[in-house]
Structures are given as C-alpha cells and as structure tokens.
Hints:
Layout: H1 4-18, E1 22-28, H2 38-45, E2 50-56, E3 59-64, E4 68-73, E5 78-84, E6 93-100, E7 106-113, E8 119-123, H3 125-133, H4 146-154, H5 160-164, H6 175-185, H7 198-217, E9 258-262, E10 265-269
The structure holds zinc ion.
The site of zinc ion (ZN) has 7 residues, from loops.
Amino acid sequence: MPELPEVYTITKDLKKYATGHVIKDIWIEPKYHIKSGNNKFIKLVLGKKILDVNRIAKNIILELESNIYIRIHLGMSGRILLRNRNEIKDRWTRCILLLKNTKNSYIELRFIDTRKFGRIEVLNKNNIEKLRNKYGIEPTGRNINYNEIYKKIHKKDTSIKTVLLDQKIIAGLGNIYATDALFLSGIHPNTSAKKLSVSEIEKIILCAGNVLKEAIKNKGSTLKDKAYVNIFGKEGRYQKHFKIYEQRTCPKCSKDTKVLRISGRRSWYCPHCQILK
Ligand SMILES: [Zn+2]
C-alpha cells in the first residue's frame, strides 16, 4: 500500500512535471465511478490549468484554476503514470487526463487502480479544509507537540502498532514504516498504547520521522508485488534499507526475528531488542 514516502515522491514529481499544464480532455473507463460523479468531474475539470500539486497526508491534490481541486488517493494499489499520448494503455487504467503544456505538447496523466480501492474526485476549497482537518500530525513535521500526542495516544486501549496506523492521530505511516519505526525505538509492536510514557512516544515519533525521511530519500519502497512505481514507472529503493520489515535476523543483535499479525498486517520485531512491557 502506498505510504507517505511513495505519495510524497509522486506529488513532488507531479508538481514538477504537471504544473502549468491544461487539462484538454478526460477519459473515464465505462462503468468506473468517480466519487463526485463523472459528469460533474468532467464539467468542473475540463479546460482548467493545473496551478500546483500538493499533498494532504496520503492524498495527492491537484490545484486547478477557479478554486477547483482534484483529490487522488491511491488506496491499496493505485498508481499514477505520466505517459506519452500514443503509448499503449496500461491495464486497469480508470481515468486519463490529457495534459497540454505551453509548448503545445501533450502528455497523459493516467490513474490506474487494479482493485478499485483508490479514489479520484473533484473538491472545492471548503472540502480541502475539511480533508486537512481529518488527519493527525506528520512525523516529519516541525514543532510537534508531544504532550498533545501523548494525551491522544494514552486514551487508546489498543497496541501502539495499531495506533501508529490510525491516520487521525499520526498521518502517513503505514505498515512498513510503522514496523521499522517501532524497531528503531526498541518498542514491542504489541505494547499497550496506554503504558507508554511521553518520552517513549517522542522517541517513536522521532524514529518514524527518520524512517520516513530515509524512505523519501530512496523514493519509497517497491515490494515483490511491484505495486508501487513512480510516475515514470521506476521502482523505489527503500526496500533495500528495511530495518526489520521482512527481515529474518535482527540487524542490531543478529538473533532471529518474529512476525505478529496486528490489525491484519504482518509486524516483524526482534524479541530481544523489543521486549514486551
Ligand atoms: Zn535484536
């Protein structure tokens, strides 16, 4: 599933390569439903220029003229690809925006979504603010108020791993980076969130921030399923730097790792370096 580093990479590339383009045509796969309605989407988006591309948590936001926004969420296995106009259509393409730049050359922004867990929709400024308010802090952000996060986490009667995946508390962390962040902070993934101190929570968030920054530097992670690639179809590299995720031995103590299933997701940990309190 694309997490913050993957969405960050896509957003940054789209900002560079799609900003300033005008949406000249729209194709939607027959029977595919755009959340806000296919006709409304076409009516509001067609002919508009892309002014900027930004990110809200794991949502990619294309800002268009007249306070119109396109929100794209990749869901489980969505992709965005920039392709030349005459390139063969990628399998599972749900929507294509034909973009024209100032030099009158065309490219296609293709939204591909195998399992249809992703989402594409048109929003206004008000919707964007509401969307922004749905998400918690980002571990890579500045001026994080750890006492405030502690108060939120302390109320949760669940494991810290589950809390880290809750986008309303901490935005952008998915299974891979939450697993690695807990390993670096030496906290067992099944530790009750209630039992953690402010300084332990601070440590986890700092480690999460470091893991995310390293993953961003490596342009995300591409797993064996090859689900994630950047807008040019290139794989990420963080999978070569996983700390404990998918590792058989612990990189700190060289002992065997273990795997737990928490909230339906596999969670690797080292029973020697991450003792359950
Ligand atoms: Zn270890």
